[in-house]
Amino acid sequence: MSKPSPERPVSPAKPVADMQGGDLYDEDFVAWIERQAALLRAGTLTALDRANLAEELEDMGKAKRQELRSRLEVLLTHLLKYQFQPAMCTGSWLGTVGGQRHRIEDVVEESPSLRPLLAELLEDAKLYRRAAQKAALETGLPAGSFPPVNPYGRQALEDRFWPGPGPHPDLD
Predict the structure, then answer these.
(1) How far apart are CA 130 and CA 119, in angstroms?
(2) DSSP per residue over 4-66, as a string?
(3) What is the pTM of this model?
(4) Burial zone of 46 (CB within 10 Å; 0-12 exposed, 13-18 middle, 19+ buried)
(5) Which of 55, 61, 72, 158 has a CA between 20 and 30 Å from the CA of residue 170?
(6) Sequential pLDDT tens for the chain (172 residues)
(7) What is the Cα Rg of the chain in Å?
(8) Contacts 24+ apart (CB under 8 A), 167-170
(9) How many CB atoms lie within 10 A of CB 68?
(10) Cβ proximity of 66 and 117 under 8 Å
(11) How buried is 98 (Cβ within 10 angstroms: 0-12 exposed, 13-18 middle, 19+ buried)?
(12) Which of 146, 129, 115, 152 lies closest to 73, judged by CA?
């Protein structure tokens, strides 16, 4: 039986106060964010980790755009389910439609520069195709049951819009 190899000594963690820029970014992201915010508030701009800070700011914008895309996909999926499988509609589906509409509205109110992107995404064939594929998976209906392009347009965002013959929920 072989002897277990001795453990390598673990170097003590560097105190956060001793870390600078990229080191802190790699070791403790939250501490890095807090440090960058403190430096900005103090006006100590030369000490900022500019490269990583710029990248994180760009990523924040990408995340908001991705959130909008994701919420629209969920909304369209549930509108398709509502229209093409009305007998299976649950309160959960209705809640998801309403909730996504409200969250989309919140995102655009917080970042009005995303409004043109919203219109673009409603016409995005790839986004709609994904929503239709998900609706097909969740309903068991053939993918060909759904229109080849988004049939709802901007109406999808309107609180009173419910596709299909109805009856529709009265949410007043």
Answers:
(1) 17
(2) PPPPPPPPPPPPGGG--HHHHHHH-HHHHHHHHHHHHHHT-GGGS-HHHHHHHHHHHHHHHHH
(3) 0.79
(4) exposed
(5) 72
(6) 545 444 444 344 444 445 555 688 889 999 999 999 999 999 999 999 999 999 999 999 999 999 999 999 999 999 999 999 999 998 999 999 999 999 999 999 999 999 999 999 999 999 999 999 999 999 999 999 999 999 999 999 999 999 988 778 876 6
(7) 24
(8) 169/94
(9) 19
(10) no
(11) middle
(12) 129
Per-residue tokens: 81: 């389910």
- For the record, the structure tokens of 90 come out as 């649950």
